[in-house]
Amino acid sequence: MNKDFRVSTGFFRHHKTIKLKRRLGLAGPYAVLALWAYAAELKPDGSLIGMDAEDIAIAAEWEDDPQALVETLCEVGFLEQCEEGIYHLHDWQEHNPWASEAKERSDKARLSKLKQFNKAAFLECEARGIDRLTPSEYAGWKDYRPATAGEPLSDSPATPDTPAGYPVGTPGVPQDTPGGHPRVSLAPSPSPSPAPATQEEEKRASCEASSPSADGDTSRPAPEQPETTCEVEDTEPTPEAPKKAACPYKRIVEAYNARLGQYLPSVRELTDKRKKHLRARWQSNPERQSVEWWDSYFEYVSRSPFLCGQKNGFRANFDWLVNPSNLTKVVEGTYHDQAEASAKGAPKGKQSVSEKNRSVFERLAAEG
Fold it and tell me: Which residues contact 356 (CB under 8 A, 6 or more apart)?
């Protein structure tokens, strides 16, 4: 749990703070600081999941109309609402990286603690590629011990809370938890292990068992049986569901740097957090599942003087552009002067996007 969070020395001089003060008085900036303190302690990733306007007002220690507070915070840019209706603190992870990664640090520290108290459990986690543990997962792993050869194991499959390989009756280990990981037994198995019979093989075996004896034994003649015909149905394999195309993170970042590198901060590190946001945007809409779409998007951004820092001192960056609510506003033309964007084309030094992709964005802008 965080005990502090970062506040810029320029917070009170920032234009968003000044706008908020003009609309709500001094209680406005105070509400922002109170909300940030609440998030650092209880919502460290900056996502206010499960919180409506009243909940946010309580966290911000706001005494007046909750809806007025939330609408004003969204209007000036301290708060934003994604397509799913969840509120997020604007650029929280960028401005407070230490606070936003508190849970991840705690989970990793919990795995290090497991190494001190139960090395066998730690090595099993390491073998499975587990690099962090939640409190409930730690509770399941701390009493783990591997089964010895010939020792019966629990019939329950393993879960993150209940690792596989527990001997039956291990104290403190639930034996009836539904599982997710494959069970692991250290006892030797028959070699070679018999493969389970398929449905087709079982039908053929049934037919052979019902046929008269053909081994030449006449001491006990086989009873007459009606002639039967065994048919094995030809079943076609069920077609697999088409797999989603993998998100080409590196190529999208290269398109961003190529299109916007001279206007906006270049991306130098492709972090897990950036991959997560890109993957979410990639999967949310089939139209976005091509590098050409993203190249067109970044080219469209390059035609906005506002986004490129040529007006009012604001300048977008990669993380801002892949934020869900910001991306929607960009493609709807919120930050573009329509006459300027269509007449002047791409800024100097940039190649124009293909007519096909340009028409997509201009259509979206017109519909917005």
Answer: none
